[in-house]
Here is the input.
Amino acid sequence: MQAGLIDSGTAAPAFVLPDQSGTTRALADYAGAPLVLYFYPKDDTTACTEEACAFGELLPKFKGVQVVGISPDSVKSHAKFAAKYKLSFPLLADEPPAGGVPQVCTAFGVWQEKSMYGKKYMGVVRTTYLIGPDGTVAQRWDKVKVAGHAEEVLAAAKTLASGASITSRAEPAAKSGANAPSAAPKKATRRKAVVKRGSSKSATSSRRVTKKKASRR
Here is the structure.
């Protein structure tokens, strides 16, 4: 049964896969930081190469954000692809078992029926997930068009990565707000001053009335 795409706010499916060097990578390894997980159909094809190179060129700008590619290709295929285009981020091999389907691609809903020249077949639909530090999907791009995609993902990743710092910057404001009541005594002092001035006027008026009565007598 084909799994559906993962919606925003939903926990991303856990995975454990080897990268181009044979190192095992798991979703849990990226906990605590944003993760760009992009699925692509095949190594060293035109659109897939353009997409990989675009992420590679922008990689230094993904500060605090991990970028990982996944396709059904083998570790050996990934190694050649990464070496040819000098890709320094992980490419995970979701190689399907004989007669089976790629497990992680299926879990993320990107293993779908496709059509080319009137023929239908199963394959990876180009999809990108932005996963938050808590492991939930923050954003998803479906049926990705390569041109400008890496830049769009970078902008969204920066916004997500800045979320924690924005929260921490808001805390001092809340603390300073707690000191706001200190202004109240000043207002009270002014009110007291008004009362005193009013009472002094009343006293003066009463003295004037007394003097007038005395003069009449």
